[in-house]
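Per reviewer request, we include the raw input and output of the structure prediction for the construct analysed in the revised manuscript.
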Amino acid sequence: MSAVHLSLSLNATLLVGLLAFGLSLQLGRGRRRARWPHHALYFLVVVGTALSALLAAVDGGRGWALLPALGLLLTMPRTRPGQAGHWRLALLCALAYTLGAWAAW
């Protein structure tokens, strides 16, 4: 397994964890004490997506395919947590990452 594949796989796992954790927060489980881990996971996913895109580009792959996901992830703080726009954007980020990772693989 190459570094690109490892990075894409690890970041996909972090993204699934971020979505699951966000859903649990949305459903009201541990809202006050669990916000900072959600933000830390978000930061790791953003850095991981940028790193995956860079590794894929350096490896001669299609690193540009992850840039839409990165752009969507960076717009996430503009939406209010708990609102429909936040989770819709989160799902759109996950879809963009999935398609970008598939293209960069």
